[in-house]
Design brief:
It is a single chain. The chain is built from three helices and ten strands; from the N terminus they run H-H-H-E-E-E-E-E-E-E-E-E-E. It starts with 7 loop residues before the first helix and ends with a strand. A hairpin with a 4-residue loop joins strand 9 and strand 10 (231-240). It has helices at 8-95, 98-112, 117-126; strands at residues 137-142, 155-157, 162-167, 170-172, 178-182, 188-194, 200-205, 209-215, 218-226, 231-240. The longest helix has 88 residues, at 8-95. The mean pLDDT is 81. Strands 1-10-9-8 form a four-stranded antiparallel β-sheet, with no helix packed on it. The chain has a four-stranded antiparallel β-sheet with strand order 2-3-6-7, with no helix packed on it. A two-stranded antiparallel sheet has the order 4-5. The protein folds into three domains: 8-94; 97-127; 137-240, no CATH class.
Length: 242
């Protein structure tokens, strides 16, 4: 009689061992996959943090650069404002002088009327202080009025080179009656006539008046003021021209 070596308990133990092996393998693979995923996730997280930190650094640098540029622009603007105020002050100081203001106004008017700028520059540069001027002299003439019945009166300048004469408004006495002599507080017309010329230059206004004429390389300069009763005083000199 023979006996079989098969033991059901061994079969049960083998199955249990196989099941445990499979479970161990599954948990090992799960841990490996989980560890790999965790490591990859951590690396990506660190990479994202690095990228964000770089972006923040770049933004901060850009902000600092922008602030620096703004500071520079403000400084340049303040400097420009100071220069503008200095130029304004210089311009106002320059134009505070009556003759200089009149010259600037005249030049601007000439340019607006179409006079060539280069021509104006040439004229200005050609101007120079008077040279070889004579000593001032004085002459006088009687200003003709509507009531005046006397002879014509002429002031002869430099031996008759220029004749100066004029007419004015009659003075009034205390009764309001007009007198023969002129009223120096009223406008007067003074005429200048060069010898041998039919042209008469006229200067009008309230005394004193100023006038000049160019004749044969000489500039004659006149100052017209009130003289003794009825008389107009003519003070003049002459200089080389130009």
């Amino acid at each position: 009689m023979s006996f079989s070596s098969y033991n059901p308990n061994d079969r049960y133990r083998q199955r249990t061992a196989q099941r445990a092996s499979r479970m161990a393998t599954f948990f090992f693979l799960f841990l490996v996959i989980f560890g790999c995923g965790y490591w990859v996730g951590g690396m990506r997280f660190q990479q994202n943090i690095y990228i964000l930190q770089e972006e923040k650094r770049i933004l901060n640098e850009g902000s600092e650069l922008t602030q620096g540029e703004m500071i520079d622009l403000r400084a340049e603007a303040q400097t420009a404002n100071v220069r503008l105020e200095q130029l304004k002050a210089s311009y106002e100081e320059l134009l505070s002088d009556g003759p200089m203001r009149d010259i600037v106004t005249l030049v601007r008017k000439q340019v607006d009327q179409g006079v060539d700028v280069e021509r104006l520059k040439s004229v200005i540069l050609s101007a120079r202080p008077p040279q070889n001027c004579s000593d001032p002299e004085s002459r006088r003439f009687v200003a003709i009025t509507p009531v005046y019945k006397g002879p014509s009166s002429v002031a002869s300048i430099n031996g008759g080179v220029i004749s100066v004469f004029g007419q004015g408004v009659s003075s009034k006495n205390s009764n309001g009656k007009r007198e023969a002599w002129f009223d120096p507080a009223q406008p007067i017309s003074v005429m200048f006539k060069a010898k041998g010329s039919a042209k008469v230059e006229t200067k009008k206004g309230v005394l004193p008046l100023h006038h000049s004429m160019i004749i044969k390389g000489k500039e004659y300069r006149f100052t017209i003021t009130a003289g003794a009763k009825s008389f107009v005083k003519v003070t003049f000199d002459h200089c080389d021209y130009p």
